[in-house]
Amino acid sequence: MLKTEKHDRVDSDEEGIAMKFPQLYWLVGAVLWVCTCPLLASEKPNFVLITCEDISPHLGCYGDPDAITPHLDRLASQGVRFTQAFTHAPVCAPSRSGIITGMYPTTLGTHHMRSKLVKTPPLFTDYLRKAGYQVVWPPAAGGIGKTDFNFDVPKGWVDLRVDWTAKPEVLRPPFFAIYNITVTHESQVRASRYQYVRNTARLTPQQRHDPNQVRIPPYYPDTWAVRDCMAVYHDNITAMDYIVGDILKLLDEKCLSQNTIVIFYSDHGAGLPRAKRWPYDSGLRVPLIVRWPGVIPAGSVRDDLVALLDLAPTLLALAGVDIPTHMQGRVFLGPKTQSPPEFLFAARDRMDEAYDRIRSVRDKRYRYIRNFHPDLPYMQYINYMDEMPIMRDWRRLAFEGRLNATQKLFMARTKPQEELYDISNDPYEIKNLAQSPEHQEVVRRMREALERWIRETKDLGEIPEAELIRRGIVHDVLSQEYEARRKLHPRTPPVPPED
Ligand SMILES: [Ca+2]
């Protein structure tokens, strides 16, 4: 009883002071808050990974004029922003399988979207746990703790599967905690109106993007449906930014910001046609921001080539764990940072029911593409992808002969065997320089790098999937699931015949 009375009186005093000196009150509060957060700098750092889905670096801090992302912009101002960060596969499960293992999907056998490995490979979280880290991975429900690795995870693979943002008291340093934000997923660009309203409930009217004003890539036809999808894509990014803000605020409130390395990234590029599923910058280049108070200079920018495959070895190095020799990335943060590579590599193989094999090499300026099936069109039917209104308009206008030369490129009946783009002059990768006489030296250099990489990493894309099934590397998802999906395709060819 006494305690309650005392408590009431303190509240009352505080209100009195606050009313007389509101600024002083907040200042004292802030100082008290800082002082009540113990300094833990000598301990092992915690890791918080905030991952979102299906976005390119369409954030304010990356200079996108359409972006409204104040929380991520602030995170970048407190840490380092990577301008040349890429994934190794432009689609969910292959990309995630590489992130969690530190190995190329093409080496593991997780390169088809989707497929399923027979055996679960070692995960970087296994090594963190052995080193004394608590690994917290939220439940799969709602996508916040999505695994989607193209293999099953064994029981007890992490310490806790709880939404730690709702129950931060479960976190026990040193910890690794991830949070996956799904509102930016491809499916939400074409969601129902009802779902859109729910997804973007926190946006002010000023934060909603006007389809008439939003920028669209030059390879899309300029239609209302295309513009509407682009506007929703940006609205969803702003909605995602609110959630990032919530998580960062929680870390502050729980005194966890100081000794926690926060890493933000997207699992691959924009969930839009000719971005997701395609090994161009549009599908592979991702935002990557790291905040490490007291170690990484605030507001720094790095332009070395960084791969999402590098996250696994980097986290282990920062945790003081020896990096297993099977990991194929490099350490890009901390005292054990390794020199950046000359090239990054990426692969696209079967996407749902559409078989293809494309390999891609990026250096700091050029992107080289090798199409192993030039006889196949870029835009084979994929039921899931074809649900996107952009795809519908794009195909329809292709058949009506109403696309300009740039818009027609991707609706071609066949593909060139090689493509080369000078990203510094052609960020949308439209002008193929593979046959340009003055670029033959670049083509040769990148072609050789690719062939070396295929050999050295034992690219399983050379082996037909049926053979991988026969060898017991992956389960059979072809004969039932994807055959059934193929039968749902329209009878028309996916692209018009050549002119
Ligand atoms: Ca994704």
What name goes with the CATH superfamily?
Alkaline Phosphatase, subunit A
Q: What's the CATH architecture name?
A: 3-Layer(aba) Sandwich
Number of separate structural domains: 1
Strand elements, count:
13
CATH topology: Alkaline Phosphatase, subunit A
Distance between the termini: 88 Å
- How helical, in percent, are the residues? 25-40%
Structure class:
alpha/beta
Strand content: 5-15%
User: What is the typical, i.e. mean, pLDDT?
Assistant: 93
Radius of gyration: 24 Å
Q: Spell out which ligands are present.
A: calcium ion
Largest sheet: 7 strands, mixed
Task: Give me the number of helical elements.
Answer: 17
Strand ordering within the main sheet: 4-5-1-6-7-2-8
CATH C-level category: Alpha Beta
Spell the H/E element sequence: HHEHEEHHHEEHHHEHEEEHEEEHHHEHHH
Low-confidence stretches: 1-34
